[in-house]
Amino acid sequence: MKVISQIKLPVEKEMELFEKKFFESMSSKVALLNRITHYIVNRKGKQMRPMFVFLVAKMVSEGQVNERTYRGAAVIELIHTATLVHDDVVDDSNRRRGFFSINALWKNKIAVLVGDYLLSKGLLLSIDNNDFDLLKIISIAVKEMSEGELLQIEKARRLDITEAVYYDIIRQKTATLIAACCSLGAASVKPESSEIAKMRRFGELIGMAFQIKDDLFDYGEEQIGKPTGIDIKEQKMTLPLIYVLNNSTPKEKKWIINSIKRHNKDKKRVKEVIALVKSKGGLDYAVTKMKEYQKEALSILNDYPASTYKDSLVLMVNYVIERKK
pLDDT tens digits, residue range 192-211? Predict the structure, then answer.
């Protein structure tokens, strides 16, 4: 059995019902909009985010979920989908999970409006049901994601990212959404409890580990859907690279920065940068950091009694750092 199917097993019933509710939450009186949202739903990914919502909710409440849990999962998926649609416009990307992106099929103007529509649907789903606590969790995530993206753009221009700034960027860009999923799951069944902050931290740690793993793929030999060296070509500062820049001679540092700024399209030069990062321990350092986040995430789960939901979350934490793509 695939790992994802194994993780999903304890919440399979909830996920099926969620898909139905999620599709309904997207509906509109505009035919064009329905055609586009239908296209989005039929090309869904692994749906890790709603899975986090249900698994956390069930773990902290001895297997209970309620309508708020379903709404929380739908809201997070609506908002997440909106950000993906907007990201493809920002990145001028024509593909998403192997399919054409919305902007490639229907142009940027429509893609931006569809993203706005999904965002507002998510907000209204919370407001109409007085789920203001859930709305706050989501709104913080959206704010942080935007800030993280802009911080990365600002820093990429100058290539002056310290390790601390890098952690800030990935916490906001990637980890905040997973943190929101986990705190939403807890808040949906145990409003105003200490579980919410605890699960938020748990999700944040997984998100940090997830992003570092993504960084490592840039240096790997395995086929993972993105070509090796793409981050260097796009002048993105990743943890292995930051570590090596901080632990190089002035001459090496100058050569690396010059390579990224002026020769990032030169395949031979990019390969040389990758080789240098590997030889100077950049990958080993990133793996160590990633495992620290994994260990802390697992230690939070130790506070909970044994259950199939907890088992799935342990599996999820390990999958994040062991995945091949």
Answer: 899 999 999 999 999 999 99
Give tens-digit pLDDT for 208-247.
999 999 888 878 755 444 556 777 777 778 899 999 988 8
Of the CA atoms within 13 Å of residue 269, those in its CB half-sphere come to 14
Q: Which among 315, 313, 319, 286 is positioned nearest to 300, based on CA atoms?
A: 313
What CA–CA distance (Å, rounded) separates 65 from 185? 9
Residues 6+ positions from 94 with CB-CB distance below 8 Å:
88, 100, 101, 103, 104
- On the 0-12 / 13-18 / 19+ scale of CB atoms within 10 A, 227 is exposed
Q: How far is CA 148 from its chain centroid?
A: 12
What lies within 8 Å, CB to CB, of 201 at 6+ separation is 179, 300
CA–CA gap between residue 89 and residue 102 (Å, rounded): 9
The distance from CA 319 to its chain's CA centroid, rounded to whole angstroms, is 14
The span from the CA of 17 to the CA of 73, in Å, is: 11
Q: Are 151 and 168 in contact (CB under 8 A)?
A: yes
**Whole-prediction pTM:** 0.87
pLDDT digits (tens, 9 = 90+) for 65-76: 999 999 999 888
Closest CA to 309 of 8, 72, 48: 8
